[in-house]
Amino acid sequence: MQFQQRETTSEWMVERGNPAKGFAQYAHLGAIDELMEKSPELRATIGTDYMVTPDITVSIPDDSAGLMGGAPWLHAAISCKWTIRSDRVQNIRHEFNGLIRHRRGRQPHLITVTAEPLPSRIVAIARGTGELDAVYHVAYDALDQAVRRVGNEKQLADWEECVNLRRILPYERLAETLIRW
Prior knowledge:
181 residues, alpha/beta, 6-stranded mixed beta sheet, Restrct_endonuc-II-like, NgoMIV_sf
């Protein structure tokens, strides 16, 4: 797939393992961490499930001096799953729900990148009520051909649901999506 060269006005920072509290929309979570460190009662009551650390983050610098302490804005949170185990699929939703619930400001683009070969597992994460924006597949064209050639009726139905609702997209479109988002 060929993409048109586009100019971006911001410098992007793409990193692994950055906790959400390091970004402008979630900077307030750092203060909660400090309070919880001092209080075992708070740790026991609140827990730590709000502390999300996406696999990959794409952020842009804060251009407005002093706002949110100059922390970069989280532009996209990417959950990378080579395969999607059926017993773990809800972890993605849980993490992204935390990012949705705890943000102050613009919501980042919430996506999953996978190489999962089974449409039934892909549809398990692609369906939903807004916990994630889309699933990007690293072998989209090959999987599309395989499902259409040798997939059973259920696999084809699951795949077509994801494709027709634009819940699964080729990985090659990810950069273009991030530019336009």
